[in-house]
Amino acid sequence: MKNPVPLRCELHGTVQELPAFFEHVEAWADASGVPLGLVAKQGLMLDEWLTNVAVHAYGGKGGPVTVEIEFLPPHSLQSVVRDEGPAFDPTCIPTPDVHACLDDREVGGLGVHFVRRLADRFLYRRDGNCNEVTLSHSLPGKK
Length: 143
Prior knowledge:
This protein is an alpha+beta fold. The chain contains three helices and five strands; from the N terminus they run βααββαββ. It has helices at about 20-30, 35-55, 110-120; strands at about 5-10, 65-70, 75-85, 120-125, 130-140. A hairpin with a 2-residue loop joins strand 4 (about 120-125) and strand 5. The two termini are about 20 Å apart.
């Protein structure tokens, strides 16, 4: 099978646009033959990440976000998310103590931890005024 055309979406960096974005991703994935398990996990990671960008990077006011998703048949999916929010390297966030009592935990970091746990590959780089995060996932046993 020939590699399907990657999906590229320009977003406004708001939470309100995410349902329509995910409908578009699902239609692309269905047309591209992406296995449902890959779409589901990538969707969870992207939902968390794009929500964080909208809320934390843009303070709920929106800003430019680009998402590129590529299916690497037969078993891998990769997304690259770019935003122009303040520099934020999520790979430097310490792993939260998920076993600590809620009263003893520091606020924040669980979303990043969640994405790091789901991703097979989680990379960050700052390119000029742009944060770039790469998230990839493969079906079990297919990395």
